[in-house]
Write a structure and sequence with these properties.
The protein is of the alpha+beta class. The protein has a single domain, classed as Ribosomal Protein S5, domain 2 (2-Layer Sandwich). 43% of the residues lie in helices and 18% in strands. The protein has a 3-stranded mixed β-sheet with strand order 1-3-2, covered by helices on one side. Strand 2, helix 1 and strand 3 form a beta-alpha-beta unit. Helix 1 packs across helix 2.
Length: 84
């Protein structure tokens, strides 16, 4: 994840899910859907940030539960690291 302060009241999300990493559209869409839903649930704790989620190789092998747990941990660390 990449992030920077935005000066806005709400958080914004960008996704970088490349066809090079996930060949099948169904896999790319599943990952994007999971990321968006996880972000929606954590949006209040991430106020004032612009966030870009980058996908690494091997993500297609992870199941939904594993991905959601990893995202939850990332959001938690991000919200803790960016608070004054």
């Amino acid at each position: 994840m990449l992030y920077r302060p935005s000066g806005r009241d709400s958080a914004r999300l960008g996704l970088a899910v490349a066809k090079k990493r996930l060949k099948r559209a169904v896999d790319r869409n599943r990952i994007k859907r999971l990321i968006r839903e996880s972000f929606r649930q954590q949006r209040d704790s991430l106020k004032g940030l612009d966030i870009v989620v980058l996908v690494k190789p091997g993500i297609e092998k992870a199941d939904n539960r594993t991905l959601l747990e990893a995202l939850r941990n990332h959001w938690r660390h991000l919200s803790r690291d960016t608070r004054p």
